[in-house]
Amino acid sequence: MDNTSFNSKILLFGEYGIMHNSDALSIPYKKFNGFLSISDALTKDQKISNRNIKYLYDYIIQDKYLSNIINSNNLKEEINLGLYFDSNIPIGSGLGSSGALVSSIISRYSKVDLKSFSNSEIKKIMSLVESKFHGNSSGFDPAVSYFNKPMLYSNQKIKLIERIDFKDFKVYIIDSQIDSSTKKMIKVFEDKISKSEFRLFFNSKFINNTNQCIEHLINTSKLFRDSVKELSNDTLHNFQEMIPEKLKNKWKEGIKNDSYYMKLCGSGGGGFFLAYDFDNQINSSFSDFKIYQI
User: Fold this and answer.
1) Quick one: which H or E segment has residue 157?
2) What would the mean pLDDT of 29-48 be, rounded to a whole number?
3) What CA–CA distance (Å, rounded) separates 2 from 31?
4) Looking at residue 114, what is its pLDDT?
């Protein structure tokens, strides 16, 4: 079979806000990836993957729109042959393991020519399928894996970007070594946004700051450092549930020393977290953690 590989993603900006009309900016990350494969002698982990794809199949055939898009007969046939997702993307990490799987399924089993769809329509399809895993999905993660390019989402439109320059700073992902549940974190967020005080902060200050970070990064503005520091500080004080205890002091240190600024990398709660390092402090500050430069 065609073993086309689909990369993980890193959501630079837009966590939670993308569900409330903020801008979002994400990039594919080639270090982690996965592809569909078939085996008649599945290992324990491969059986789990096969079972998850079966759950996805059951979900797809119950949706009339998706059934018109995806060839469920071919999918079911290959599930029975031992279909699984061969992936090194850590699950529950915030790096889009389910997004890469969804992208691979839609790409392989689409009954229609996806090139005839707009980018926004493809994102909608991805959203519907990935909702099986998260309950509420923007479709942004699988779309980034599908297009394999940096992607800006603004004013409900998708724009593909050839490259993003990290000027005068480095960007890292830091492994918290804690599993995260996107579905659980989304429920936490929905409970928070139901309260008027948090909703006012989020819809005005947080979303505006997110949009500024994206604008300043894309335009390599000197204002980027201040805007990402503000976002890091607001996240620390308003998304406490999404930040593991073992990272909170590190988070505070970066802001206090004006050397690096941390933020969520997806839904938070565990998995990976982002750090924007302006003074080459990450390696020494996080010597006890596994970190990757992007």
Assistant:
1) strand 157-160
2) 96
3) 20
4) 87
CA–CA gap between residue 247 and residue 262 (Å, rounded):
9
Residues 129 and 188 in one domain: no
**CB-based contacts of 75, cutoff 8 Å, min separation 6:** 53, 57, 60, 83, 105, 109
Instruction: Provide long-range contacts, Cβ within 8 A and 24+ apart, for 194-200.
Output: 198/238
Q: Percent of the chain scored above 70 by pLDDT?
A: 98
Cβ-proximal residues to 155 (8 Å cutoff; 6+ apart), any chain: none
Whether 139 and 175 map to the same domain: the answer is no
Identify whether residues 97 and 184 lie together within a single domain.
no
Q: Kindly indicate the confidence band of residue 150, based on its pLDDT and cuts at 50, 70 and 90.
A: very high
The reply to whether the predicted model has a pTM over 0.70 is yes
The CATH number covering residue 29 comes to 3.30.230.10
Which residues are CB-neighbours of 96 under 8 A, at least 6 positions away? 8, 9, 89, 141, 142, 144, 145, 266
Same domain (yes/no): 276, 197: yes
Separation in Å, CA 248 to CA 34, 108, 201, 228, 231 = 32, 42, 21, 17, 15
Average pLDDT score over residue span 191-220: 95
Total of domains in the chain: 2
Domain range for 279: 170-293
147 versus 19: the higher-pLDDT residue is 147
Within-domain flag for 165: no
